[in-house]
Amino acid sequence: MHVCSASGGGSSAADELLDGLGDRRGALAEPASPRQRRxxxxxxxxxxxxxxxxxxxxxxxxxxxxxxxxxxxxxxxxGVELSEGAKAYEDATAVPIGIEALGxxxxxxxxxxxxxxxxxxxxxxxxGDSIRHLDTADRIAPQRIRSDPxxxxxxxxLDRRAKHRVWELNSLxxxxxxxxxxxxxxxx
Length: 188
Description:
The protein folds into two domains: about 1-100; about 105-188, no CATH class. The protein has helices spanning about 15-30, 35-55, 70-80, 85-90, 105-120, 125-140, 140-145, 150-160, 165-175, and strands at about 60, 65. About 35% of the residues are buried. It has a two-stranded antiparallel ribbon. Helices cover about 60% and strands about 5% of the residues. It has nine helices and two strands, in the order ααββααααααα. The model is unreliable at about 1-10, about 30-35 and about 180-188 (pLDDT under 50).
């Protein structure tokens, strides 16, 4: 999506913001089909959005936030849907993320939930980090996170995989109002 400025001249910050929002929206449509070519398309959209975000910085326009932080958040969300595991986390956090730039407790908690989900996709090695991000998400917006079916399922998954009891996970189970499920095994 490319927008010409009203003056017919060069590109303005508003034009670049609109371009970036358009590229972000293009990337959002991609997780519906997580085949490799669709993943490549999603990453191409995200890369273009990141390029524009680098030019315009953190901004709010048309009642929507756009900037490097928002692109990083979408990179993680799309990485979760594409089952990219810790690679999506590493790619999104390669540059420090200013989570407060999102300007919303809900968006901030959603980003931490996505961090937790994508790290849990590693199947165990990053579960400690996943638990910490899930705990952070819950502390930021408990009313949103505790009722989220994906968050609740993640707590159960992390609990089943835990080799040993850890207080952070016990605390999450208690706050979510869910008990441990089944025998403990690395494979559960």
